[in-house]
From TrEMBL:
The gene is otsB. Keywords: Hydrolase. GO terms for molecular function: hydrolase activity, hydrolyzing O-glycosyl compounds; trehalose-phosphatase activity. It comes from Antrihabitans stalagmiti. Pfam families: Glyco_hydro_15 (PF00723), TREH_N (PF19291), Trehalose_PPase (PF02358). Its EC number is 3.1.3.12. Residues 251-461 form the Trehalase-like N-terminal domain. Residues 476-845 form the GH15-like domain. Gene3D superfamilies: 1.50.10.10, HAD superfamily/HAD-like, Trehalose-6-phosphate phosphatase related protein, domain 2. PANTHER family: GLUCAN 1,4-ALPHA-GLUCOSIDASE (PTHR31616:SF0), TREHALASE (PTHR31616). This is Trehalose-phosphatase. InterPro entries: 6-hairpin_glycosidase_sf (IPR008928), 6hp_glycosidase-like_sf (IPR012341), GH15-like (IPR011613), HAD-like_sf (IPR036412), HAD-SF_hydro_IIB (IPR006379), HAD_sf (IPR023214), Trehalase-like_N (IPR045582), Trehalose_PPase (IPR003337). GO terms for biological process: trehalose biosynthetic process.
Length: 851
């Protein structure tokens, strides 16, 4: 028998529950994983069921248990189930073989009397037998003539079953009298709480199993074996079917946990408006979108939890893979195409600040299936969907949400908690337009027709892209990198996201899952600098205004945190969204980021470096007045950053990689302290600003200390920190920044050591030092970009070109890069798209084009 022989609805339910974060798989024993036989001592389980339960128990986030009417000792001996599978005997009351000691003397006395009574009935009725259990006694009539069986059962029912303190359970050809309360449902709930299960499966065949079925709710599923009334939603015929269902559940869960069904990270394509972002999978599913801000709760978290976590998909009615997905040139509009069908996605711009809108336009001659399952606030609020003349209204979350879809006929379904809407549409008569509007109840037509709204959105990006000065190397990819960086800019506030997502793993199945939907001072400054380098200054100016606003709320610039929310406020405490299983089972899914409480003393450098880059870019654009090229507002910021360095540069910190351990004297942080003062001194000279002579002295002091304490003779390299021999790719900045002459043999040696220690094939790791977290991580694209720059500075052009080519080759089909890359599994890792990776790529192309 194969899984295809199982009822379709059951297969679907099992495939869905396989994706729950913490799964509890429970089963009854006799009649469920072991066939009913005439001799209870010969009821052996199906080996396939044992194998599946054992394998399920070995998976992460998965518990397997058998809850049986049998005595625990007998169950263990007969089933031979391994210890990983939790056994509960005596109809759910015997978790531990020692539990009999907990039965008081009165109960023991009663049990003795019951045994005597039932033994007498058995002795008087041929074929009737008695089974002894720690807190009960069972009378079996399976092997008696039907008349005798009835007579024996009636004798018990009319006699001992009515004694005070006796609990009666009737099953298949058996009546059982217990001196304690038994309830398989209670056992199921104990296991559920013990394991913090987010969903449970229960298989059972007998009336005693109904107590367990009665406890199932929400995403749980119950499967009844055989005939008879039942509270279970699903039914199979035989114990063989149970083996098949368990094996199917195992396969599905294994696949889900291994990430085989997760879309490849680099193939996810970014949609952006000036204030919102979303991701679309290669097959046309909106897999990620947050509202009201990009750092708020997700409406669609499919990326971190599959379809149940919220999705909005469009595809051909006759299932087929897409032929292509691409950006409309120089825009953030994405077209996904199948044979005779296309969906065009973009985030409209002409909406109020309280709105997050998405428009999907379906065109072609083939029918399409649309599935709309919003799960606002990370799916933590149950939602209902109501049909209206012009679309759908979604009730449940705090914020209103509608889908305008004139002419579309929706079917609404429920999974018991949430509703979803499905429709089959025929675009052959004209485009089908679906307008998702988060933050409003308004289902009326927009002021502008859809094509005009789209033109408005597209011209915003194309007009901007047309004025860029891009390197001649890989111009299309570089334009896409620039557009991606611009897409991560949150225009209303001036802040810039480090990436569009949270919790895409740095290690598949691991715990290194962080929330990057915030504005890091360092990442944002580097992004703004990259945009200045291609000729766009506005983002830098607005970002610096955002930094000013943040500073106004602080007692001093040295108190700057490493990151803030989009609107420059402190982050909420880091938390786990437990209902999401994570990308490819990589849990936890986190929101917030505890790194905001760390000391990271490098952050002042990139800000002053950005101001310097901006001032020179203004000059290059023809601004000759030094006070316009370096206005007071920027110079104030420079002075603030220098004062912060003066106060704190000698302290240890958590460094650029936000190590969640003890602070160290990181070389990169000291180098960035030097960059702060160096760029400030240089700016003062170039733009006629007067400075305290102590600045130049400080620059020298930092440099002297780094050169003395950062270099390690033993490893022939500058090291990650003063106190160790471990290496860090960020240390390359000692030469990249100009603190030492790149021709200095110590820099050349550091490049060689970094390559030997941290480069692996096409990628470069940040460090290999034990950072206190379990699991590993991939190589870091930005570090590869730094090594390309270091190769160039040390005369290794062909190495630089080769590594750049490798970096280019791991970009997805629409030109996007995530944070990291696993060179062994050849898959992308980490949040996506990542500003660092794109700014690194852009800089490499600029340097390679210039040389
Ligand atoms: O909760 P379960 O695991 O299903 O246990 C219920 C009872 O199962 C056993 O009896 C039943 O299976 C026997 C073997 O196939 C069969 O001969 C008998 O007629 C059934 O009632 C077990 O012997 C009992 O102790 C359990 O309570």
């Amino acid at each position: 028998m194969s899984a295809l022989d199982l009822p379709l609805e059951l297969r679907r339910a099992l495939a869905t529950i396989a994706r729950t974060p913490r799964l509890l798989v429970t089963s009854d024993y006799d009649g469920t994983i072991a066939p009913i036989v005439s001799d209870p001592t010969k009821a052996f389980p199906h080996p396939e069921s044992v194998r599946a339960l054992r394998a399920l128990a070995g998976l992460s986030g998965t518990t397997a248990a058998v809850i049986s009417g049998r005595a625990l000792r007998d169950l263990a001996a007969l089933s031979r189930l391994p210890v990983e599978v939790q056994l509960v005997g005596s109809h759910g009351s015997e978790f531990d073989v020692g539990f009999v000691h907990a039965i008081d003397n009165d109960a023991k006395q009663l049990l003795d009397e019951l045994v005597v009574e039932l033994e007498q009935i058995a002795a008087a009725n041929a074929g009737v037998t008695v089974e002894h259990k720690p807190a009960s006694v069972a009378l079996h009539v399976r092997n008696a003539e039907p008349v005798i069986a009835r007579q024996a059962l009636n004798k018990v029912r009319q006699g001992a079953a009515n004694w005070v303190g006796v609990q009666v359970t009737e099953g298949k050809a058996v009546i059982e009298l217990a001196v304690i309360v038994t309830d398989k449902g209670e056992a199921l709930d104990i296991l559920r709480h013990q394991e913090s299960a987010s969903a449970a499966v229960f298989f059972g065949d007998d009336v005693t199993d109904e107590k367990a079925f009665a406890r199932l709710h929400g995403p749980d599923i119950g499967i009844k074996i055989g005939d008879g009334e039942s509270l279970a939603q699903y039914r199979v015929d035989s114990t063989e079917d149970v083996s098949t269902a368990l094996a199917f559940l195992l396969d599905e869960r294994r696949r889900w946990l291994s990430g085989a069904s997760a879309p490849q990270i680099e193939r996810l394509t970014l949609l952006a408006s000036p204030r919102s972002v979303a991701l679309v999978t290669p097959d046309g599913t909106i897999t990620w979108m947050c509202h009201p801000e990009p750092d708020s709760g997700a409406v669609f978290a499919h990326l971190l939890g599959g379809p149940d976590a919220g999705h909005f998909s469009v595809g051909p009615q006759r299932a087929a893979l897409p032929l292509s997905q691409r950006y409309v040139d120089r825009t953030m509009t994405v077209e996904t195409r199948w044979s005779s069908l296309q969906v065009t996605d973009y985030l409209p711009h002409d909406v109020g600040l309280e709105r997050t809108d998405l428009t999907r336009v379906i065109t072609g001659d083939a029918k399409a299936v649309v599935s709309f399952a919003p799960r606002p606030e990370f799916g933590q609020v149950p939602i209902q969907i109501e049909r209206e003349t012009f679309g759908l209204r979604v009730f449940g979350p705090n914020d209103p949400l509608v889908l305008r879809s004139p002419g579309v006929h929706w079917d609404i379904t429920t999974d018991g908690v949430n509703q979803s809407a499905f429709a089959v549409v025929d675009p052959s008569e004209g485009p089908i337009t679906l307008e998702l509007r988060c933050g409003t109840w308004d289902l009326a037509p927009s002021t502008l027709e859809e094509p005009e709204r789209r033109a408005l959105a597209e011209s915003y990006w194309s007009t901007w892209a047309d004025q860029l000065v891009l390197p001649p190397l890989k111009p299309d990819l570089m334009r896409r990198s620039a557009l991606t960086l611009r897409g991560l800019v949150h225009a209303p506030s001036g802040s810039i996201l480090a990436a569009a997502t949270t919790s895409l793993p740095e290690d598949i199945g691991g715990v290194r899952n962080w929330d990057y939907r915030y504005c890091w001072l360092r990442d944002a400054a580097l992004t703004a600098s990259a945009l200045v380098s291609v000729g766009s200054l506005r983002e830098a100016e607005e970002y610096l205004a955002w930094v000013h606003d943040v500073l106004e709320k602080l007692p001093g610039p040295e108190r700057l945190h490493p990151l803030y929310t989009i609107y420059g406020t402190g982050l909420p405490p880091e938390a786990v969204i437990d209902n999401l299983p994570g990308y490819a089972g990589s849990r936890p899914v986190r929101v917030g980021n505890a790194a905001n409480m760390q000391v990271q003393l490098d952050v002042f450098g990139p800000i002053v470096d950005l101001i310097s880059t901006l001032a020179h870019a203004r000059v290059a654009k023809g601004i000759t007045d030094p006070d316009e090229a370096l206005p007071d507002v920027d110079w104030e910021l420079v002075c603030a950053m220098v004062s912060a360095v003066q106060r704190r540069w000698q302290e240890p910190d958590h460094g650029i990689w936000e190590i969640r351990g003890n602070p160290r004297h990181h070389v990169y942080s000291k180098v960035m302290g030097w960059v702060t003062v160096d760029r400030a001194v240089t700016l003062s000279e170039q733009f006629g600003r007067s400075i305290d002579p102590a600045w130049a002295e400080l620059r020298q002091t930092i440099s002297d200390e780094v050169l003395q304490k950062g270099w390690n003779d033993e490893v022939q390299s500058f090291t990650a920190a003063y106190d160790g021999t471990d290496l860090d790719a960020a240390t390359l900045h000692i030469g990249l920044s100009g603190l030492i002459d790149p021709a200095d043999p110590r820099f050349a040696a550091t490049v060689v050591a970094t390559e030997a220690e941290l480069r692996s094939g096409s990628t470069v790791y940040r460090y290999h030092h034990d950072d206190g977290l379990p699991g590993g991580e991939g190589g870091f694209h930005l570090c590869a970009a730094w090594l390309v720059e270091a190769y160039l500075l040390t005369g290794k052009r062909s190495d630089a070109e080769a590594l750049f080519a490798q970096l280019v080759s791991v970009a997805g089909p629409t030109g996007l890069l995530s944070e990291e890359y696993d060179p062994v599994a050849e898959r992308s890792l980490g949040n996506h798209p990542q500003a660092y990776s794109h700014l690194g790529l852009l800089r490499c192309a600029q340097l390679l084009s210039a040389n």
